[in-house]
Design goal:
2 copies of one chain form a homodimer. Chain A has 281 residues and is of the alpha/beta class. Chain A is built from 11 helices and 8 strands. Chains A and B meet through helix 2, helix 5, helix 6, helix 7 and helix 11 of A and helix 2, helix 5, helix 6, helix 7 and helix 11 of B.
């Protein structure tokens, strides 16, 4: 009767239906909605995103969908970032807890800025500032071309060079910095011969102040490498330990800031790197 | 005196200082804050993100920074996603318009779920669900390996294959789907010889139902290609027009859904693709 111990009321735990509704991509609704939901770790949620709700007719269809789910007995939670008045009023009629992420805050900003909100659908994830968008796309291209030390040309263009032994998280972090923040990020893999020589690897020497190191724990690194090449020397705890120790020594010797990636996400690494390298994004 | 026409009050327009404050990465504060700010296109903003505010002492230092800026004459706007009560109370004392993105909504969810919020710093962008995080990282790796038709092995593992002529936006869209949504996305470049043959390109034939096409306008495509190879046949309006027309014909003939990428962002493309391909993320 473990179920009853965990759930003393005796009611079968059910996933709460959650809807993220948007007149645009739904990214903002998902982001704040999920942040709020992490405050309730005891509950489980069944999430659906409905983007591009741009007419009252579409909103009415969404209300029907949500109401049909509510009729099954569990009141859904709705997070909405819809801006337009008519569509918002329609969605507000849902049989659900409707959390209006825009309407709640907009009056406060209208007061602060002394201006009325435009009322147009969110453009935060559209092309918006075309120059900024283009620079993000160029940064992705740059990151692809400079992944894993593939091309050492144009390192002078990099705003940051991530340095680490293989499988410490360089590539996804580089990609995240480029795609989300438009940062020109290159990365450079440290290999055994880099540790045998004195000093920084030759291609990095002119750019020491742009370098940021990643490290990990031997256990975590060995686990990840084993997923790639089981029972290899490459994945052995001994090899991982040697490479990480040598890399950390290199970072310390050359004043390169670094971060242990073993228990943080790419988002956390990117935020830390932007802050510590004082990169404006 | 154009300045005075645009700004009848005669006051020099100044950028409004905006702070995104967080006990975690700051991503959620930036995302909703920026969405709200796009409602005020007449104003300009000078944005600063301060992540990882996890103690009252740090919060006090932030308050001093914001107050010093306020003392220069323009009241800043502060968007906060800090969860912890003490830190929130400290930040609320800023000389600024403080928009509390968590506190405002949490009571509504506490009511709906019949439970108290945990009060722990946001984990939405941390490792959180380790399996889900790992699958996103694996998806990034997969996307890197299958970019631009590099490796046609393992296409059966793809949840989606983006198909398009060169420079229509396949790579950043693939990367976004992988990094944000953990979707296994491959991409396949259409080249001239693909248009000269009947049917789908050979490697795609078994996977037609996973294909999603991108197209563009000849003008936009030519402009992007010119940035890569000026005055080339590859970048000519005539060549771009031919490739796009042929690609669209291929999509239509084989019932491949497609999207014109010329005036939408990768975020919008990803949201549209997830919706139309009914990919659960």
């Amino acid at each position: 009767m473990l179920g009853n111990i965990e759930n003393p009321g005796g009611v079968e735990p059910v996933s709460r239906p959650v809807y993220f509704l948007s007149d645009s991509t739904g990214i903002t609704a998902e982001t704040l909605g999920n942040t709020l939901l992490t405050q309730f770790p005891q509950s489980t949620f069944d999430r659906t995103t409905i983007p591009f709700i741009t007419s009252v007719e579409q909103a009415q269809a969404v209300v029907s969908t949500v109401d049909a789910v509510a009729a099954r007995g569990v009141l859904p939670i709705v997070f909405s970032t819809v801006v337009g008045g008519d569509i918002r009023l329609t969605l507000a009629t849902c049989r659900a807890t409707v959390v209006d992420l825009i309407g709640t805050h907009i009056w406060q900003l209208e007061g602060a800025l002394g201006a009325a909100a435009s009322g147009k659908p969110g453009q935060a994830h559209g092309l918006g500032n075309a120059a900024r968008y283009q620079s993000r796309m160029t940064a992705v291209e740059y990151a692809m071309e400079h992944d894993d030390g593939q091309s050492l040309r144009a390192l002078e263009k990099a705003q940051i060079i991530l340095v680490a032994p293989s499988r410490c998280g360089k590539t996804p972090t580089t990609m995240y910095l480029a795609l989300q923040h438009g940062i020109f990020a290159a990365n450079f893999p440290l290999v055994e011969e880099d540790f045998e020589r004195e000093g920084l690897p030759e291609p990095l020497k002119p750019f020491a102040e742009k370098c940021f190191g990643l490290t990990s724990t031997p256990q975590r690194l060995s686990q990840i490498r084993t997923g790639r090449r089981r029972d290899s020397a490459y994945a052995s705890l001994r090899q991982c330990s040697y490479e990480l120790r040598s890399a950390e020594l290199m970072y310390l010797t050359h004043g390169i800031p670094y971060l242990n990636s073993s228990s943080v996400s790419v988002e956390e690494m990117a935020a830390t790197i932007l802050q510590r390298m004082r990169l404006k994004h």
